[in-house]
Specification:
The complex is a heterotrimer.
Chain A (H helix, E strand, L loop, with lengths): L1 H27 L4 H6 L5 H11 L5 H13 L13 H36 L4 H15 L2 H15 L14 H35 L2 H8 L4 H12 L1 H25 L5 H10 L3 H29 L3 H4 L2
Chain B lengths: L5 H22 L32 H37 L1 H16 L2 H12 L3 H28 L2 H8 L4 H37 L11 H8 L8 H28 L8
Helix pairs in contact in B: 1-2, 1-9, 2-3, 2-5, 2-7, 3-5, 4-5, 5-7, 7-8, 7-9, 8-9
Chain C lengths: L1 H17 L8 E6 L14 H7 L8 E3 L5 E3 L2 E6 L5 E6 L13 H12 L14 E8 L2 E6 L6 H5 L25 E7 L3 E6 L13 E6 L3 H9 L5 E2 L8 H5 L4 E16 L9 H10 L2 H9 L4 E2 L22 H10 L6 E7 L3 H16 L2 E7 L2 H10 L5 E6 L21 H12 L3 H17 L4 E13 L2 E2 L16 E2 L2
Parallel strand pairs in C: 1-10, 1-11, 14-15
Antiparallel strand pairs in C: 2-3, 4-5, 5-7, 6-7, 8-9, 9-10, 11-17, 12-16, 12-17, 13-17, 18-19
Helix pairs in contact in C: 7-9, 8-10, 12-13
The chains are: A mainly alpha, B mainly alpha, C alpha+beta.
Chain lengths: 314, 272, 495
Amino acid sequence: MPFLLRRLAGLVATLTGISLVVFAVMNVLPGDPALTILGLDSTEDARAALSAQLGLDQPVWARYLDWLGGILQSDFGTSYAYRVPVTELILERLPLTLTLGLLASILTIALATALGVFAAARHGKAGDWVTMILSQLGIAIPAFWLSILLVLLFAVTLRVLPSGGFPGWAEPLEALKSLVLPVTALVLVQASVLARVTRASVLEVAKLDYARTARALGLSPRRVMWGHVLPNALVPMVTVAGMQLAGLITGTIVIENVFFLPGLGRLMFQAINNRDLYTVQALVLLFASIVVIVNFLVDMIYLLIDPRLREGRS
Amino acid sequence: MRNLPVSLWIGGALVGVIALAALVSLVWTPQDFATVAVSERFQPPSARYWLGTDQLGRDVLTQLMVGARNSLTIALVAVGLGGALGTALGLLAGAKGGWTEEIVLRLADFSFAFPALLFAIMLAAAFGPSFANAVVAIAFINIPVFVRVSCASARQVWQRDYVLAARASARGGLAITRDHVLPNIAAIVIVQATIDFAGAILIEAALSYLGLGVQPPEPSWGRMLSEAQTLLFLAPQLTVLPGLCIVATVLGFNLLGDGLRDLADPRREKAR
Amino acid sequence: MRRTALALTTALVALPLMALPGWARTEITLSTQQEPTVLDPTADATASIDSMLTQNVYESLTSVNEAGEVIPALATDWTVSEDGLTYTFTLASGVTFHDGTSFDAEDVLFSFNRAMAEDSTNPSKRIFEPITEITAPDAQTVVITIDHTDAFFLFNLAQGDASIVAPESVDGNATSPVGTGPFRFDSWTRGDRLTLVRNDDYRDLQDGMMERITFRFIADPTAVTNALMAGEIDGTAGFPSPELLPMFESDPRFTVAVGTTQGEVILALNNGRAPFDDIDARRAVNHGLNRQEIIDGAMYGYATPIGSFFPPSDANYVDLTGLYPFDPEVARSLLADAGIAEGTSIRLRIPPFAYATRSAVIIQAEMAAIGLDVEVEQLEWAAWMDQVYNGRDYEMTIIAHTSPNDLSNFTRGPNYFYGYDNPAFNTLWDQIVATADPVARGALLQDAQRFVADEAVHGFLFQLPSLGVYRTELSGYWVSSPVIFSPLADLRWTE
C-alpha cells in the first residue's frame, strides 16, 4: 500500500502547510485581538493585560509550536473572542453545517442524476432542451441572488417557510423547515452543473458498442440505461461531484450568512472579523481536510470503477 | 458557418452585447458614472435616464455599462494570469513527470483545498479591498484548475509516437513542449478558460457583494446588488437589472465554452 | 417540559393567536444586528452585550432613564460631599443575585476593585480612574472618594462596564451571566439567539412584565425586514436601513420609533498630518460638504445635521450648522490658500458600517466638486481600529462617536486618532468637568462646541438617529438611546 501511505503523507503535509499559511496570514492581518475585544474606549494598560492573558505577548513561532503541541493532545486552543475551547465552538455548530452539506449533496446527486438521465433519454427532444436550458440558467444565477428571491417568495409573500434562522434540533420539524430554502438555493446551482455532466457522459457511453449490443439483445431501454449505461458513465460524474464539494463548502459559508444560520460558515466570518486566530485555524483545517479527503475518496472510487486506472498510478 | 453549434451563436451574441457595452463605456456613457445627484434618485426610465436612476441619482445604464467593463476586465486579467501560470506549471509537470509532477500536483491540491472565499477575505483584510486584490484572489482560485487540465492533457501528448520520436532525436523538453505539446493542448485550455471566465464573473460578483471587490465610485454589478438589496420592495429593478446582467454574462460564456468544446472535439455530440 | 410546550405553541400557532383578544402575551422576540461573543459587559466592549444585558440581567449602582438623567438602581440613594469628592451610596436591601447569593456592599467593593486592578481588562477602565478609595462602612453603605470633581461620575457608574457582579459567579459570566436585574439569563445559542426569563424575585416586580424575552441575532437588514414581515420577530432597535421605514410606517402592524442617540457622525480629518494640519484645508472641506444631501442620500432624511460635536437633543446644544455654508467656490479658494493643488489625492478609509459606506460615496462626489480626488477604502472593523484608530494612518474617515459626553475626545492629544492638540481646549474641558453648577457648565459646554466648530477640527455631519420598528401592540420600549443599554422591564403587550 505505498500508494495509500503516500497519499496520507501528502494529506498531512497539505494540512501542515495550510496551518502555517493561516497562522502567518492571521498574524500579518491588521487588527489587534485585544483592541477588537475591548473597543475604542479601552485604555492601553487594559489591552496589554488582556494581550498577556491571551498569550499574545509571546513571539509568533512560540505560539505556533505551542498550538502544534496542543493539536497532538487534541487541544485546538481557546477562542480569543468566545473564551471557550475552539472544539466546543465547532462541535456545537457542526451538526447544522453537516446536515446542510449532506442534505445538499444527496439531493444534488439525486436530482442531477435524474435530470441528466432524463435529458439523455430524450436526447434532442423537447424534454432535453428544457432541462438543459434550465440547468444553464441554474449555473448562471448567483446563489446569493437566488436566495434573496426565494426568501421574498416563500417567506415574505407566501409565508410558508421561515426567512432564516434555526430553531434548534429540539423541534425537528421546524428545524427541517428552516433548512428547506438554504438547501434549495445550494442544490439548484450545484445540481445544474452535475446534471449537464451526467447527460454528456451518459450520451457518450450510450454510443459505445456494448450499449448498442444490449439494446440489440432486446433489453428494455430502461434496463440498458440503469443497468449498463449509467454505471459506466460514473467516472466523470464522480470527478465533478468531488470537485463540487469544494464549491459546496464555500456555498455553505455564503448561504449560512444569507439565511443567518448559526453554522460553521457564520462562525468563520465572525472569527476572521474578531481576529480569533485559533478558531479560524481550526475551521480552515476542517474545511481543507474535507476537501482533501474527498479528493482522495474520489481517486479511490476511480480505482473501484475502472481497474485500468490502477496501472496509471504509482 | 451553418455547422456552428447553436450554443456558440447564443453564447456569442450574449457575450458580444455585454462586451460591446463594456467597450462603448470606454469612450461614451449616457452620464458620468461618479456623479451623485440625490435629488434625482429613483427616477423612472426617461429620455435622459434610459433605465432610470438609483438610490443616489446615478444613471443605472451607465452603472451597468461601467460595471460590465469592470467585471469583464477583472475576469479577463484574473483568468489570464491564473491560466498562464497554471498552464505553465501543468506543462512543466507533464514534461518532467516524477517528483516535479508530484510536487506541482500537490501544490495544486493545496490551493484547491484552501477555501477560495476565505483566501479572498484574508487578502482583502490584509491589503484592503481593491480591484487588484480581487484579480489576485480569482487568479489564485484558477491556478489549480489549469494545472490539472493542462498536466493531464500534456501527459497524453507526451505518450504519442511523434513526441517519442522527437525525444529519441534528442530534442529538448522545452522545444518539444513548445512545438508539439502546447499546440495540442491549446484548444482544451482555451475551452477551460472560457468556462472559468464565467466562474470568475460569478466570484467577482460575490466578492463585490461582500464589499471586497472594486471600490466606489467604480460601479460593480455585485455591489449594485448588495446596495439595492434593501430596496427590493421600493425599487425592485435596481436588484433585478444587475442580477440579470450577471446571469446573461455567465450564461453567455458558458454557452460559448460549450460551443467551442464541440468545435474543438467534433466527436462530441453537436448542439447546445 | 413547560418550556418546550410554550416554545412549540409560540412557533406553531403564534400567528393565529396573536389576533385573539384577551390572551395576555408575556413573551417577545426582538432582533439585534450584532452578535455577542461573551456575555460579560465588564470584559468585552461589544455593544449588543450592553443592549441585551445591562440593567436587564446586570445592574449597576446607578442607572439612566430615557431622558438621559441618572436614576437609582442598586444604590437607592446617595449623597455627595460639599467638595464634590466623596460619594456615599445607600444600597438596596434584600437583593439577591440570580444564583441565590445575597447582594451587599462587599459585592460592590469586589466589582470595583476588580475593574480597577492592575491587570483589569475592563473595556472602560477610564470610568474608574478618578477613584482613590472605596470603602464599605456597613453592608448597606459604600463610600467612594475621587481625586477631582467629575460631573459625569454618576452617569458613568450606570454603564455596563460598572456592573455589580458577585465573586461567586463572576468567572462564569462570560457564558452564563448572573446579576441582580429584573431578568435572568435562560439560554444562549451562539450565533443564533439569547433568551432571558423574568426574575420573579426581583425587588420591583411589576404587573405585565415579560416572562420571556428572546433576542435573535440577525445581521443583514434585508433579513431583519423579512423576519419582521413574516412575523418571526416582534421588533428591533437600531434598524439599519432608513429607506425601509416608510414601508413600515404605512403598515398598520408596525410602529416606527424614531429617536435620538448620542452618536455624532463625523467626517474625521487627521489633524496630525498634511493636508489637514492646515485649518484652511479643514475649513475648505467643511464648505464643500452638503449636509442635507448626505442626510438625504445616506439616511433618507432620518437624521439631524450637526455643526459641532454635541447631540442636538441636549439642552445645551448650539446650532452651528451655518458656520461653514455649503459653497464649493469658497472651498476651492480656501484650498488654493492652503496650497493644495487641484486633483490632490486623499484617502477616505471607512469602517464597515452602513452610515459610513453610504455617506462615503456622496462625500467622494462632493469633494470631487471642490477639486479633491477622494479614494474610498472600506476596511474591516478590526483593521479600521488597528490602522486608522490606533495607527492614525489616514487622511479622512467617517465614524459615529456614540459615547455620551465625548467632547473630551478633543483633549486626548496628538496620539489620539484626531491628531488634534490644543492646550486652550484642554483648559476649557477641565473647567467643564470641575463645574458642578448645571447652568455654568451648560454655558461652558456651549463654548466648547463653538471652539471645535471654529477650529473646523472635523467635518461634522449628522446625529445618528435611533431607529426602531415594533409591533403596534407593543409599548414600553425606548424610542431614544441616551446610552448603549436599553432597559426592557417596561415592555408590555397592549390590546
